[in-house]
Amino acid sequence: MYQYPFYPLPPQPSTIAPQKKLLKDKYEVLQIELGSGTYGKVKLVLDHVDKKKFAIKIISKSYMKQIFATQHILNELNYLQGCKHKNIVEYIEHFEDRDNIYIVLEYCGQGTLEELIKKKQKFTEEEAFHYFYQIAQAILYLHEKDIVHRDIKADNILLQNSNVKVCDFNWSIFLPNGGKAKPCSCGTTQYMPPEVIKKEKHDKGVDIWALGILLYYMLHGELLFRAKQKEELNEKICNKQSIKFNEKVSKECLQLFQQMLAHQRRINIQQVLNSDWVIKMLKGKQSQNSLELTPIKCKSIGQESTRVSIVSDSSRFSNYKFTAKSLYTESPFKQNNLNQGVQHPMIVRSSALDQNNPAFRVEKRYFY
């Protein structure tokens, strides 16, 4: 009898769903990358408990140590844990494994201000003010706590519904009592003021300059200083030159530009919020109720006499002793050994503009 040869059937596709990748047994990593940068990536995750989405910043420990970025990460954790403001991205928690550090942040689903500017190309003054005013409020909050962001730019402004969220505190520094930071190259070159380009000591004025550059970007659709070569770009920033403005920019806005982009005697954030342009725009907004307006009525803000002491246990990484120090940044908490969980107090100012939140809580955007 003839026997037919046996041909095995092709393997059937598995009906078993692939195992979901979970972090800390609660966060499902979705196949959406929100951003990437020097230290790692930012992914979208889903919390299985409350079904809420978050952004999670994944930072490689080995690469972080390799480029001496430990202090930058500690800064991000320290500042964002201590700040609670509607225009600053909210810190949820952080944890680690053998290879990475994970920072869980609120998810801002409308992208960045950079993406919006590229889409719209140019804003009207009314549109630009909507974002400018909220960013200025966040800077005011930080400066009243003697924190200087040092990397204000469109990429670091997240959009969530009608609110903006300032993020990325890697370059931030604590400068109490009107102090100045040591010379260093920090932030993003197109937004750097002359004193940073020249590697001079600098203070809170770096955020004012960057905010002025950002306002120009929104109104003109291009950055104020542009060049193919870094040396040419640095020269343009440092040399005083006439600035070409859109003819539709109001005289009050032009005056504010002149004050924010001054090489000497630059105005502070309180004076920005008391400028003629801001007051004019606020009056126009009051009838629309599109912003929660908290204008400052005095040319200088007197700090309350009450001072509070806070502690933070922000950074504890189980098997690592981070000893590398950045030459350019300082942490407000002097942490010699993170494994011991030593708590370090810091004195900060309290303010009437804290939106009913304590100056710092006792107990941090996307990463580019």
Automatic annotation (TrEMBL):
<feature type="domain" description="Protein kinase">
    <location>
        <begin position="28"/>
        <end position="278"/>
    </location>
</feature>
<dbReference type="GO" id="GO:0004674">
    <property type="term" value="F:protein serine/threonine kinase activity"/>
</dbReference>
<keyword id="KW-0808">Transferase</keyword>
<comment type="similarity">
    <text>Belongs to the protein kinase superfamily.</text>
</comment>
<keyword id="KW-0547">Nucleotide-binding</keyword>
<dbReference type="GO" id="GO:0005524">
    <property type="term" value="F:ATP binding"/>
</dbReference>
<dbReference type="InterPro" id="IPR011009">
    <property type="entry name" value="Kinase-like_dom_sf"/>
</dbReference>
<feature type="active site" description="Proton acceptor">
    <location>
        <position position="151"/>
    </location>
</feature>
<keyword id="KW-0723">Serine/threonine-protein kinase</keyword>
<dbReference type="Pfam" id="PF00069">
    <property type="entry name" value="Pkinase"/>
</dbReference>
<dbReference type="InterPro" id="IPR000719">
    <property type="entry name" value="Prot_kinase_dom"/>
</dbReference>
<feature type="binding site">
    <location>
        <position position="57"/>
    </location>
    <ligand>
        <name>ATP</name>
    </ligand>
</feature>
<keyword id="KW-0067">ATP-binding</keyword>
<dbReference type="InterPro" id="IPR008271">
    <property type="entry name" value="Ser/Thr_kinase_AS"/>
</dbReference>
<protein>
    <recommendedName>
        <fullName>Protein kinase domain-containing protein</fullName>
    </recommendedName>
</protein>
<keyword id="KW-0418">Kinase</keyword>
<dbReference type="InterPro" id="IPR017441">
    <property type="entry name" value="Protein_kinase_ATP_BS"/>
</dbReference>
<feature type="cross-link" description="Glycyl lysine isopeptide (Lys-Gly) (interchain with G-Cter in SUMO2)">
    <location>
        <position position="153"/>
    </location>
</feature>
<dbReference type="GO" id="GO:0005634">
    <property type="term" value="C:nucleus"/>
</dbReference>
<feature type="binding site">
    <location>
        <position position="168"/>
    </location>
    <ligand>
        <name>ATP</name>
    </ligand>
</feature>
<dbReference type="InterPro" id="IPR030616">
    <property type="entry name" value="Aur-like"/>
</dbReference>
